[in-house]
Fold this sequence. Notes:
Layout: E1 6-14, H1 19-29, H2 31-34, E2 39-46, E3 53-60, H3 63-70, H4 73-82, E4 86-95, H5 103-108
Antiparallel strand pairs: 1-3, 1-4, 2-3
Amino acid sequence: MAEQVFRVMLRMEIRPGMEEDFEKVWQEVGDSVTDHPANLGQWLSRSAEESGIYYIVSDWVNEPLFRAFETSDRHLVHRQKLHPFRSGGSMTTMHVVAALAGAARTEQGTR
């Protein structure tokens, strides 16, 4: 069986009034994650329901390569740049077991 994509989802609580700066810095330092050879992509989403809550989702080739990145100096530097904006958060990890493309994606190509 082929290895499953390893997905990481971070829930980040951003200090009030720092949301815009957080989004800017996240964009500026994101390549420290996406340039890693095992990274398949990364997304930043703002909660539509809770003020100051963001979700960062990143996909990885597999869990061992993500764990190697997670403990690397590269990741430490990335975290240090985002830490001043955080007041709390959590991490959830998972293995993607299936994916279905929606009608809009299959008709219009990748968005």
